[in-house]
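We give the entry.
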Amino acid sequence: MLVCACGAATGAVLSLQTRDSLMRLGAGSLLPSVIVFSLIKETGPIITGLIVSGRVGAGIGAELGSMKVTEQIDAMEASAVNPYKFLVWTRVLACVLMLPCSRFGGRLFWKDRGWATNALMEPISLRLFLENGFKTDVQ
């Protein structure tokens, strides 16, 4: 949810900031391509990674810290269970598996807010926005 909220704000701000510059240069038709390219390939993965690492890393650190204070980790060691393998590995694996899902969810909101902000200034359909956005983003 946090990734989607930040993605929506990023898409709206990028659309507002880039629109004026492109209009002055006479390249207003490139705005969808700029938004799609920059959010999917450039800033989107960085923003998603920073948000997920900050939020999840703080949560994992706090949880493992409280387990150390209450001696739960010591109890696992006394039971002949490797606490790093049991506690840390599972959390890291969950983060690795869910990061692409968060990135995909963020992509939907980034493009949606970019289109909505652009549509407020200049009426354009979502279909046309996406077609123009992916026209030059072919690889």
Observations:
- The chain has a mean pLDDT of 83.
- The two ends are 30 Å apart (CA to CA).
- The longest helix spans residues 31-69.
- The chain has five helices and no strands.
